[in-house]
Amino acid sequence: MNSFAANAKMINRLASVPGGVPSPPTETQVTQYMRDLTNPPKGQPQPTSQQVTQAASDITGGMIMHYSSAGRQDPIYNANPSPHAFYKDHAGKIHEFPSLADARNAATAARAHKSPDAPAGRINQMLALARPVERRDVARRAARRPLHR
């Protein structure tokens, strides 16, 4: 019974996604939901880190439960055709966009209007890892970068 409750909780949380969501939701739907949650419209309160963590936990719990009793064909993850992009402005605020093209368009417009939202540096693409990060990968990176200089 808990598996169905976890799945229902996930679907209920994602109900705000335009057009609703299937069970399980697609990568794009989950990403868009989390982006909207963490970047509320102006005038809306910013969610706390606990609220963001709870949302991620609800989605993860629902996905785990879906896969433990999957009835439909599973969606393909990590196949998003347009990786997201972001840049930081001069105040250090991160501006995130659904695609690299959207980030470039926003940067061009912000620069043209001399907006404080103009990028301070380059536009970065967010690329998902092809596989989960393994402990040995983290250990290798740590070995290459000393903590104290």
Please provide a brief summary of the model.
With 149 residues, this protein is mostly helical. The protein has two domains: 2-68, no CATH class; 85-144, no CATH class. The protein has helices at residues 2-13, 27-38, 49-68, 100-112, 135-144, and strands at 85-88, 94-97, 124-125.
By DSSP (H or I, 4+ residues per run), the number of helices equals 5
Q: What strand order characterises the main sheet?
A: 2-1-3
Order of helices and strands: HHHEEHEH
Shape: elongated
Structural class: mainly alpha
- The radius of gyration computed from the alpha-carbon positions, rounded to a whole number of angstroms, is 19 Å
The residue-averaged pLDDT reads 75
How many domains, as an integer? Answer: 2
Polypeptide structure, described:
This protein is mostly helical and 149 residues long. The protein has 2 domains: 2-68, no CATH class; 85-144, no CATH class. It contains 5 helices and 3 strands; from the N terminus they run H-H-H-E-E-H-E-H. The chain has helices spanning 2-13, 27-38, 49-68, 100-112, 135-144, and strands at residues 85-88, 94-97, 124-125. The chain has a 3-stranded antiparallel β-sheet. Helix 2 (27-38) runs antiparallel to helix 3. The longest helix is centred in the middle third of the chain and has 20 residues, at 49-68.
